[in-house]
Amino acid sequence: MFDSVQSVINDLGNLGYICDKRIATVVFLAQELDKPILIEGPAGVGKTELAKVVARSLGRELIRLQCYEGLDEAKALYEWEYSKQLLYTQILKDKVSETIAGAGSLTEAADRVGAEDSVFFSSRFIVPRPLMQAITAEKPTMLLIDEVDKSDPEFEAFLLEILSDFQVTIPEIGTIEATSQPLVFLTSNDAREMSDALKRRCLHLWIDYPTEELEIKILDSRVPNIAKQLAEEVVAMMQKIRALDLKKTPSISETLDWARALMALNADSIEEEVVNDTLNVILKYEGDVAKAQSELSKLIQKKAPAPEPSNPVASKPDPKASKKGILH
Amino acid sequence: MQQRIIEFTNLLRKSGIRVSVAEGIDAFMALDVLSIEDRVVFRDALRASMVKRGDEIATFDELFDLYWSGFYDNLRDSFGNLGDQMGDMGLDLDSLLAQMAEMMEGMDGNVDLGELAKALLTQDLAALENMIREAAEQAGTDRIENMLQVGFFSRRTNEQLDLDGAGGELEALAEKLAGMGMGSDEIEGIRQMIKKLLENMRRSVKNFVERELQTRNHDYMEKFRKEMLQEKSFYHLTEEEITRMREVVNRLAQRIKNVLSVRKKRIKRGKLDLHQTLRRNMARGGIPFEVIYKHRRKDRPKLVILCDVSSSVANVSRFMLQFMYGLQEAFTKIRSYVFVSDLGEVTSVFKDADVNTAIEQALDGGDVINVYTRSNFGKAFHDFWKDHLSSIDNRTTVIVLGDARNNYNDPMAWCLRDVHNKAKNVVWLNPESPSAWGFGDSVMDRYAPYCDRVEECRNLRQLSKIVDDVML
Q1: Which of A110, A253, A260, B471 is the most buried (most CB within 10 A)?
Q2: Which one, of B368, B319, B370, lies nearest residue B347 by Cα?
């Protein structure tokens, strides 16, 4: 359990997830109010990671439901295990004959079988899927419904029922109530807007690209042994690349990858050549790489550091560079 | 506090953020479990429970600052530098006040000051804030709608406060002090101070009313402009409006796409698919436990777009193309051609570049045609008939976009007739109003018989309606 907003920040920080107050507040609220969180934001800013870390920090089992187009109840909630039922019928054939032995009429035989049909429609033959697992688990769990925007609108409607009542109705068996209420996180990449009904039931958390300061902290905690100078340069560069008009804006995961790549190449500061070689780590489209490359010399010049006053570029007053100076 | 939060919720609603009652309750519950001392936490709690859309966050933040950032700070700013102001005039505020207090002590029961005058004299900002709020409420400031009313409502608030009365009282006090033998320099100083106090108060009231206006009408103009854009004729768009329009077009396309996915699902279940059912149930000895249905597939149309890119209709073509490519997934294939007099295919431009750049290129002729000639629909259609007729089959919807102003050239309507015979649909979108069709050099009447539909399309609303009706 988290005691306060600050304790969320600390606990998650201990597990290597650096978050700001905004994220912590919402997580804390979700726990206190027993409400699901809908996490939105660009890809790769750590939406799924947040859920994982929270689960670890609370010591809850993480049950993950990955959404995709065509996901239906059978795959999300429960399914009858037909083959097992069939197998059992075959094996128990003799027993069935025994039961109906001596029945005077067909109706009577059917009645006798009917009296036993709960054997075949019992929880024995149900395959629980993530949603059911989450609400029938003995200990409170953490349910992560990942990329809910990929699912169909019908599935969304079906989710509503689960999220508001935390119970499942199986026609043949009855209603199964949650033994414990799971903490629910939904993530969405905004591929499609979720319905108002779903949004209304959730707290909303928008995770955006991190600020420079926060990103350096994240880099520090995620990439051990990174030199401070390199971390700062990488982050400053990333912030500038994000300002470009790209098809796919690189996010935190790319920053981490890039920092690791640069470290593997033993680069201790960013130079045009190294950057050129590793640009495809952060940019996933040919066009983006080309665009970044054409802007690259500008970007690198902009961050041309003051230590070399002889550098003619640095002597020019550069608004961006001086702004960076203030930030540090 | 409760009242304030409810009021804030109403403000959000007024600015176009939909906050349901349940969400309002959530906000209250959230504040129950959190300490509201930390401003950031307070803001985040409200935001998480009431704002559910990424693009509304900016609005929320602005409103939050306007509404919750204390008016108190503002008051402090304007009253805080009173000492400095007096200092500039060579007066020492503190000693003056001390002297006053001393003398007033002697007067005991005789001082007759109202609440406001007292608060002003002691600079009790909290009390002042409350008084201003109350008075403003009674003056009906929450009904303020535009800048012109600031003066009016400030005056009414001042009247409610009875600021003039308080001024009179203070003036009388100064008289009295003078009568009790205070030095004339000091009296002059006190008069100056009273003047300053009243001035500051007036300014604060005006400031309060202005803030009120900002909060109430935040986003009002913005919303208004967006709605206007949908109705606005493509002919008269400024550069800035074109950029803004892009966003609106995208949103419309997105909305249609959402509706579309629901529509597709609805027609999904069809007849029993025997083959699939047998295959799927093989594991169960062929007993059909699981039944599979054939999906009835709605044809996704193929599109052929012919865009007139002469300057007179370039804007319509621009949004038409953006709209279509925004809906790309809804079609199996889009081929686009541009023409003025010659016709050229620009499909490949859209493959290589992102939509917006591609559109700009296409409007420039896409390196394949000369856009600086006079429109000749006949020639363009003949070109199409000659080279590209084979690209049309019975699943193709052909969209022609142009004003059909042919500069008295041969319309060659038979080319369009042949296209019409082969295609599933021919839709003509004309940015001119129907009354102008067929007059002057317009040959719309010659082409109309070979079109399944001819529609006027001069603004975004019409465009989206046609796309929805005809093509999807």
Answers
A1: B471
A2: B368
